[in-house]
C-alpha cells in the first residue's frame, strides 16, 4: 500500500483562494481575461460555487462564493482587499484591455517600470486587485539597485 503524500503532486505549495459574490461569473471573467482553464468545480444544491479550481498557465487559484456562516467573505465585506495578485502575461497591454472590456476597473494604467516590467493594475468586478506584467528588459541586481535609488525609468 502506498502512503498518501501530504502535498499532492498536482498542487503547488501556495495557492491563492479567492472568495467572491458570483463565483461562476468570476470564473468566466478569469477564463476570458487570463485564458484560465477550469480544473474542477463543486456547486452547492442552491447553485453557488462551494469550491472551484482554475489554472492560469502553470499556476493554480481556488475560487468560491462567499459563505458568511463560514467566515468566508468577498473583498466588499471589508471595504476592499489589501491583497493583490501578480500575473506575468505575454502582452500586458492586451490583457489589461481585455480586463477593462470585461468590466474591470483600472487602478494604474500599463506603463514601463524601472525594474524592467511593463505593468498595469486593475480591480476585477468582485473586488480583487490584479497586477499584469510583461518583462521587457532583464536588469542586473546592481543596475536595479541604482534605478531603485533614483527611480530611473528605462530609455
From TrEMBL:
<dbReference type="InterPro" id="IPR004360">
    <property type="entry name" value="Glyas_Fos-R_dOase_dom"/>
</dbReference>
<dbReference type="InterPro" id="IPR029068">
    <property type="entry name" value="Glyas_Bleomycin-R_OHBP_Dase"/>
</dbReference>
<protein>
    <submittedName>
        <fullName>VOC family protein</fullName>
    </submittedName>
</protein>
<dbReference type="Pfam" id="PF00903">
    <property type="entry name" value="Glyoxalase"/>
</dbReference>
<dbReference type="InterPro" id="IPR037523">
    <property type="entry name" value="VOC_core"/>
</dbReference>
<feature type="domain" description="VOC">
    <location>
        <begin position="10"/>
        <end position="135"/>
    </location>
</feature>
